[in-house]
Write a structure and sequence with these properties.
Blueprint lengths: L3 H14 L13 H18 L3 H14 L6 H14 L3 H14 L7 H12 L2 E8 L4 E5 L2 E6 L1 E6 L1 E8 L6 E7 L4 E6 L6 H43 L9 H34 L13 E9 L2 E9 L1
Parallel strand pairs: 1-7
Antiparallel strand pairs: 1-4, 2-3, 2-5, 5-6, 8-9
Helix pairs in contact: 1-2, 1-4, 2-3, 3-4, 4-5, 5-6, 7-8
């Protein structure tokens, strides 16, 4: 099997040597081609140092950059070989099949790839995943591998299989399979408790109201300061002092009272946001949140009665 570093080096030569139309012969390579060459060189070095995960990222970026380029399928060959070195035989199979679909009929690696497909297929096991939801993502170890209900191919060995979907707690099972072995895995997913979802909704509602109240309080507070400044200026001027009326003083007082009311509301909604924030589930549907409870308890300080927030896990 051809070394992927050699394949990518060949790709770089083909890209560099590709003939340009006469009208464009003096043009420099496109920014995408120039960036692709950089990632090609990085991928070669990483693959040579057995850093296949990083090399895979470089090759995948090259594949994106070479959209429309006739040599783009060659990158799939190198992507597939990286997956092989990482023992992701199912992903390698997918990349090799895409290579056969995108490469020209005369591509020199077709025979090699066909033989590799048969060899890799013999290394895979199959699981049929059944769930009690209409649809769920199937994750094998640390990567998404398919959807459930349905069949998923995976390399032989020990794996952690998990299913995830919105609105339900994740479920997982550990499985050990030999190559070509098949097994049915059934998952009973539990809905996320409604209390947690409502707590999250109430948190954002309380936080939004707190921000809105604080904003309005600031507006009325600034208005009160502006009115007071105007009245003070007129009082300092003997020729305008007589223009200050009770209505001006009432306007200042109303603005102050309104600002204080909005600030008090902001504080109240802020406390509510803290409480609901403690109760809310912030880890999403893919992780189970610990059971938590919170309540306000009365207390006493030298300054007088107070309330404190108590949280239990």
């Amino acid at each position: 099997m051809r070394n992927p570093s050699a394949s990518i080096a060949l790709l770089a030569l083909l890209v560099a040597a590709a003939p340009a139309p006469p009208a464009l012969a003096q043009d420099a390579p496109s920014p995408a081609i120039m960036e692709a060459r950089i990632h090609i060189a990085q991928g070669e070095g990483l693959f040579a140092r057995d850093n296949f995960e990083a090399a895979l990222a470089e090759y995948q970026r090259v594949y994106e950059l070479l959209a429309g380029n006739p040599h783009r399928p060659d990158v799939l060959f190198n992507i597939a070989q990286c997956h092989e070195r990482l023992f992701r035989y199912d992903a390698a199979l997918d990349a090799y099949r895409r290579y056969l679909q995108e490469a020209t009929p005369s591509a020199e690696e077709r025979a090699t790839v066909n033989g590799t497909l048969r060899a890799l297929d013999a290394l895979l096991a199959t699981i049929e995943v059944r769930v009690n939801t209409p649809r769920a993502e199937v994750w094998i170890d640390d990567r998404r591998a398919g959807e459930a209900p349905g069949r998923v191919r995976l390399p032989g060995g020990r794996h952690l299989v998990s299913v995830r979907t919105a609105g339900f707690l994740p479920s997982q099972q550990e499985v050990q399979l030999a190559a070509r072995q098949s097994r049915v895995l059934t998952f009973a997913m539990e809905p996320i408790p409604q209390r947690r979802r409502l707590s999250t909704l109430f948190f954002w509602t309380s936080a939004g109201l707190a921000v809105a109240s604080a904003t309005l309080g600031t507006v009325f507070g600034l208005n009160s300061l502006s009115l007071r400044s105007d009245v003070d200026q007129r009082l300092a001027d003997p020729t305008q002092r007589w223009q200050v009326s009770d209505a001006d003083r009432s306007a200042i007082q109303r603005a102050q009272v309104t600002a204080d009311a909005f600030f008090a509301g902001a504080a109240l909604f802020g406390v509510g946001a803290v409480i609901f924030g403690v109760l809310a589930d912030w880890r999403g549907p893919r992780e189970a949140a610990p059971r938590r409870q919170a309540h306000l308890a009365p207390g006493w300080t030298p300054q007088g009665p107070t309330m404190r927030l108590e949280v239990s896990f």
